[in-house]
Amino acid sequence: MATKRQNSPPYDQNNRYKRRLLRTLKVTLDYPLRFQPKFRQYIWGGRRLGTELGKPIDAEGVFAESWEVVDHGDDQSVVANGPLAGKTLGELVRRHGEQLFGSHQATEQFPLLFKFLDANTDLSIQVHPDDAQAALLDPPDLGKTEAWVIMDAEPGARMFVGLKANVDRDTLRQAIEQNQLIDHMHIIEPKAGDCVFIRAQTVHALGKGLLVAEIQQSSNTTYRLFDWNRTDAAGNSRPLHIQQSLETIDFAQGPVLLQTPIAVAPSVERLVECDKFVLDRLCLTEAGASGGDDRFHILSVLNGAVTVEHPAGEFELGKGETMLLPAASSAVTLVPRCPSTLLDMYLP
How far apart are CA 141 and CA 123, in angstroms? Predict the structure, then answer.
C-alpha cells in the first residue's frame, strides 16, 4: 500500500517555482527588441510625430516627444515583440543585465534614452546638471549630456546652443532680470543632417520648426531659465529655476558648434564620441551591419527603410522606427530597401 509522502511542499507552490525557474533559465536576449513608444504632450509640441514619423498619436492634441528607448523610474519602454513581449526595459536590466550589457558592467538602469522631438514652437531656454550635481538630488538622477540630429528644419528655424563668449554669471543674471537672455545666446540656423553635441551644464534650446532625433543619458532633470513668457490654456506659466540654473551652468564653455562627421568605415560616419555614448550615422545604399560585438546597439531609421536580417528572422524597420540589439544578440545585416539613413548608438 502506498504511503503518503510527508513534508513535501504543496504541489502548486512547488511547480509554480519550477516553472518560473525554467522560464528564467530559457530566456535569451539573442534577438532584436522593439518597444512601444511613449508620448509626451508638452506645450511646444505639434503633429509631425504622426504625420512624418507614422507614430500612433491621438487624433487631437499636440505631441512633443516620442520616447523610443527609456528606463527611468516609472517611464519604461515595454517590449513589443518576441518571447519578452510585455516586459519593461527595467525588468530586462534587472533580470538579464549580463546579456543586455555584455562587456560593459551592468547598471541599475539602462543608461541611455533615445527619442524624437517635434518642436512646433520654441522650447524653453534650459540647462541640465552633470552626473556629480544630479547625484545630490532627491531622488538622485544621472546628469544629462545629449546630442541632436536634425531630421528636418523649416526655413529660418533656429537652435540656441551655448552662451556667447565671455558671458559670466553676473552678466547672465542681469540679462535674465532685464528679459534679454536671448541676446547672450549663441544661435545656429541648422539644416537637415546637422548634429549638435550638448554637454551637461550647457544652456540650450531647440527652436520652432525642427524635427529632431536625440540620444541622451537616461535623465529627466531640467532647469528652465526662460520660457518665452508664455502660458498654457489655463493662463498658467511653467515654473522657472533661475538659481538652480546659475549654479549648474558651466560658464567657461562658450558657444557650441556643429559636429564634423568623421568617416570611420564604409557608409559609417562618427557624429559624437564621448564618455557617455557613441553616435554613428549609417548611410546605406547597400547592405551594412551592426551588433555582434558584445555591447548593445540602439538602431533607428531617420530616412528610408531597411530589412534587419538576424538568425531569429527578418525584421522590417521604417522611418521613425527603432530597435535595441542586446549585447547577447547575434550581429545583424541591414539591407536597405531604398537609400536609407540610420543612427547607431552604443556605449564607448
Answer: 22
